[in-house]
Write a structure and sequence with these properties.
Elements (H helix, E strand, L loop, with lengths): L1 E8 L4 H12 L3 E6 L6 H11 L5 E3 L5 H10 L2 E6 L6 H6 L1 H21 L4 E7 L23 H19 L4 E7 L1 E3 L18 H9 L6 E4 L11 E2 L1 E3 H16 L7 E6 L5 E2 H12 L5 E4 L14 H7 L7 H16 L2
Helix pairs in contact: 1-2, 1-8, 3-5, 5-6, 7-11, 9-11
Bound molecules: nicotinamide-adenine-dinucleotide and UDP-4-deoxy-4-formamido-beta-L-arabinopyranose (WQD).
UDP-4-deoxy-4-formamido-beta-L-arabinopyranose (WQD) binds next to α7 and β8.
Length: 341
């Protein structure tokens, strides 16, 4: 089995494409599997252009067990990073079965196939959403998870549990769940980035689309929260830094440096940033004025969440490095590239 080959499921998407680049840069071979349900081939082509490597791509639905098994037969990877999932929180509340079916089935297929074909290491894309409105801040990996308020959030909790139980029961498997905070920005080349379909639900793509004139005005959801400036606090993690955390997680398992066979790490910066601060940073570093207004609070938003990253810093030897200024510059450079501005 090739220890340095990684299957990246959902690798045509936002986080997967950036991770593929960092894996290749670190010397891993990569195979991308994706059904392009929330992406197109531009992500894969971007990875190929940035790295100069003709990365193999398989168009496959991870929920289709037989078709997915073919990827395991054809490629000689020992590790999987599983990004393939739907991620729109609001849609998951409106159509929970769509989320349970896709996110759980694809993940269970990965685990089954890894066992069947003797593959060892898996990284699962989890989320800070598992903490909900936390009782203590910043949150550590020991901070209790809160009952999920969306089907999407529930799939993250359920997949974490499936991974924990599978690793405990099947000695051939090792797993790491990475809990991402708020991934933002784009690759410095501006050849890959976030490509939301329709109206963006997340803050940074809404900002960049407003700056590009695609959206008229950014609504800031609430200025009366119990925070210094009244807007919510989040931990915005640069996408390249986040991608590098995956390289560290895979390397840890390949090199057998993991302390437990199942581990969980927060992946954030450790810094709380308000919505107003993020908007101001975007305006300053890109030298433009954004059209925005204060709007009512958005249902379901937590007031504040940011990461204690001590564990990832010490155990993965990883830490967020790219300054927020650069991240917000990269977000705008990507939007301009996509819109040909
Ligand atoms: P994305 O939508 O850009 O990427 C996900 C990719 O998976 C897409 O290319 C999509 O086509 C593919 N996919 C979905 N279902 C599939 C299936 N059944 N078979 C094959 N491919 C499938 O999303 P992203 O932002 O890159 O997120 C990647 C992962 O990280 C997801 O699991 C997401 O839940 C998780 N995550 C994202 C964030 C975030 O804010 N972006 C935060 C925390 C966790
Ligand atoms: C950030 C802040 C909004 C849009 C979501 C998911 C979470 C995770 C990351 C996957 C909040 C405010 C936003 C806008 C605004 N995804 N905002 N105007 O809600 O922290 O997390 O994405 O796991 O599960 O819930 O991110 O980018 O939507 O919002 O004022 O138009 O920006 O209220 O305070 P969020 P976000």
């Amino acid at each position: 089995m090739k220890k340095n080959c990684v299957l990246v499921s959902g690798g045509a998407g936002y986080i997967g494409s950036h991770t593929a680049v960092e894996l290749i840069t670190a010397g891993f071979d990569v195979v991308i599997a994706d059904n392009l349900s929330n992406s197109d081939m531009s992500g894969v082509e971007g990875v190929r252009r940035i790295t100069g490597v003709d990365v193999p791509f398989v168009n496959v639905d991870c929920c289709d067990r037989e078709a997915f098994a073919e990827v395991f037969r054809r490629y000689d990877f020992d590790s999987v990073i599983h990004f393939a999932a739907y991620k729109a929180v609001g849609e998951s509340v409106a159509d929970p079965m769509k989320y349970y079916r896709n996110n759980l089935t694809s993940f269970m297929n990965v685990i089954d196939l890894m066992r069947e074909y003797g593959r060892s290491n898996i990284v699962f894309s989890s989320s800070a959403t598992v903490y909900g409105e936390a009782d203590e801040l910043p949150v550590t990996e020991q901070t209790p998870r809160k009952p999920a308020t969306s089907a999407y959030g529930n799939t993250k909790q359920m997949c974490e549990d499936i991974l924990r139980d599978s690793v405990a029961a099947y000695s051939s498997l090792k797993g790491i769940a990475l809990r991402y905070f708020n991934p933002v920005g784009a690759h410095p080349s501006a050849l890959i980035g976030e490509l939301p379909r329709g109206v963006p639900q997340n803050l940074v793509p809404y900002i960049t689309q407003t700056a590009a004139g695609i959206r008229e005005c950014l609504s800031i959801f609430g200025d009366d929260y119990p925070t210094e400036d009244g807007s919510c606090l989040r931990d915005y993690i640069d996408i390249v830094d986040l991608a590098k955390a995956h390289v560290a997680a895979i390397s840890r398992m390949v090199e057998q440096k993991n302390k437990e066979r199942y581990e969980v790490f927060n992946v954030g910066t450790g810094r709380a940033v308000s919505v107003f601060e993020l908007v101001r940073t975007f305006e300053r570093v890109n030298d433009l004025k954004l059209n925005y207004k204060v709007a009512p609070r958005r249902a379901g938003d937590v007031v504040a969440v940011w990461a204690d990253t001590t564990l990832a810093n010490e155990e993965l030897g990883w830490q967020a490095e790219r300054p927020l200024d650069e991240t917000m510059r990269s977000a705008w450079a990507w939007e301009k590239y996509v819109r040909k501005l």
